[in-house]
Amino acid sequence: MFQQFVHLLSPTILVPWLFGMAFGVFVGATPGLTATMGVALVVPISFYLPPEAGLAVILGVSFTAIFAGDIPATYLRIPGTPASAAATLDSFEMAKKGRSELALLLDLWCSCIGGTIGVILLILVAPQLAKFAIQFTSYEKFWLGMLGLSLAAVVSFGSTFRGLMSAMLGMLLATVGLDVVSGTSRFTFGNSELSGGIGFIPAMIGLFGISEVLRNIHAGTVLKPPAATGDDTASAGEVTRVIVRNTPTILTSSLLGTFIGALPGAGADIAAWCAYGLAQRTSRKPEEFGTGCEAGVIAPTSANNAAVAGAWIPALVLGIPGDSVTAIVIGALLMYNIKPGPMIFQENPQQMQSLFVIALMTQVLLIPAGWLGIRTFSWILKMPRSAVLAGVVVFSVLGAYAIDNSLFDVWLMCGFGLLGFFLESQKVPLAPLILGMILGPMVEENLRVGLISSGGDWRPFFTKPISAFLAATLLLTGLAPLVLRLLKARPKPAA
Fold this sequence. Notes:
Elements: H1 2-8, H2 11-29, H3 35-46, H4 51-68, H5 70-75, H6 87-96, H7 100-134, H8 138-150, H9 160-174, E1 177-178, E2 185-186, H10 200-219, H11 236-245, H12 247-261, H13 267-281, H14 294-310, H15 312-317, H16 324-335, H17 344-347, H18 349-377, H19 385-404, H20 407-425, H21 431-453, H22 460-463, H23 465-489
Antiparallel strand pairs: 1-2
């Protein structure tokens, strides 16, 4: 192992590795440039590198991009990547209070801790978790999606009804495009641009970026300085105390993130939302979530980096991509004559050992790379608010256009910006809408596939052991707030 470590520090591997991590910070911090896009861009370059260097570049980009997505989410309320959407809730609110550096340092260290836990679990229990994940059929995946949607009530502040209404709107928008089963067009109105569905990235940029600009203009705060001004610093001691105080949240979110990442198709974005919902549900002060609380910053960032490592479990052991990034990675592994599957550890032990060491070292290198990223983007706070909002519009347009080089995506982003502004003016939360757009296709596809395979019989959704467990968990999740509310409303016995 030590010799492997020394070998990976050779210039031919370390130099492209560091460049890959720097590129990952840029990709993650630029709205519209996703981690998937970043990995897709570096894979062709990795063709000309040794296998260890190519794997190091790919891993470096994926981990740093997921963290760096929290930077614009904290400063501008625009998630750099979909996995950072949950960070817009508390990190941005903490920045408005003048604690952006604390929020981002918590993001950085918890990303490192979560990623390290995820990699360790990948090394120790990859075969066992992969065997469990492969047991998930359409019945189990349906309930998993429904369980995720139930978190809409958790991440909704104020009216639970408005939160569920927002989630249903997200699911409705997710039905636009070709039918996932029959292939027929739905709600496209003859527009070929909508045949592939509503682009998630333009929608997300519009909901969180353009709506924020409109909200500031409407409130008359365009020319005011940013909220986070003054001595916005955080000492190492303060960050350490916050991390120690929230150790249970970090561990729970990292474990949950690794598990969700190991489920094919789930991904870091779902892991972040689920961890956020679990942290709020188990908190002694759930009303503080969404106001800039520490646990609301720590939970999603610990989970999404752990999910990146967890997604490698089915990719390596089963050849099934855990997310879109590992789908690209499987192709890169085949290029290196590494065939993912149950025999990968017997046929390619040296490469697997290198991959595990690279993944662990990436978490260590994430600290200096992420810190430099924070320092580079912190100048945004020193700019006038009007310049910041103008920059938000410019980068939002560029980010939306860069995905498919389509002006339609820019108009789509503007439309979702107006929708987000309207919904927020009516106190309808945006987070459940995003969750509905993510999970809607998963729920619909697995419901219909399950019914087709069972001949229209609903019983397998409730009789299969894992399905029954997930259905029971969903029921308990829905009833828990009602029970707690009734218990709180009970009159206390007279003394």
